[in-house]
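ok so i was messing around last nite and threw this chain in just to see what happens. nothing serious, just curious
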Amino acid sequence: MDKEKQKEELKIPPIELLREELAREEAKHGFRKTLWNIAVVLIVAAALTALAATRLFVLIRINGNSMEPTLADGEVIFLRQTKEIEKGDIIGFYYGGRVLLKRVIGSAGDEINIDKNGNVYVNGEALEEPYLAEKSLGKCELEFPYVVPEGMSFVLGDNRAISIDSRIKSIGSVETEQIVGKVVFRAWPLSRMGMMR
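result:
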């Protein structure tokens, strides 16, 4: 009797129902596999991005007003790590255990002259500086004309009245080995975010 009840209770489902169940299980497995593959790709992409960012870029928060109005205190910028710089670039360089940001005015062999009104001349030509709020000789310990030594760059802050830069003998011209890179992007504040030259 018990065996007959067990036979009645043990019904084999139709083949269509088994096929539907198999298709559902395969779909679940395929979905999980797809999710896993996406997760692996995202993790690898994030790791590569982080590696590239730390090798290619340096994130810096501005501390001070020596580059105003171009860069303001508290702003966040990215430096692209490079030693290849041009006149007009804003560079970051090591000095006294920190990174200073200044604008490249002259390179090796250039003759720099700054008059008492703050007008800058490079190789006898007046430098157009639309990025300045006002011109100033500021604190200056150099005698002009000044010739930039080989393998160095002459740098000035955009806020000439208060900037401590190549005009001060303790900083002087910046050696290529000191250079971290050049400013390429402002990340903060959002209202001023964008690429920089």
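not much to say yet. The helical segments are 2-9, 15-56.
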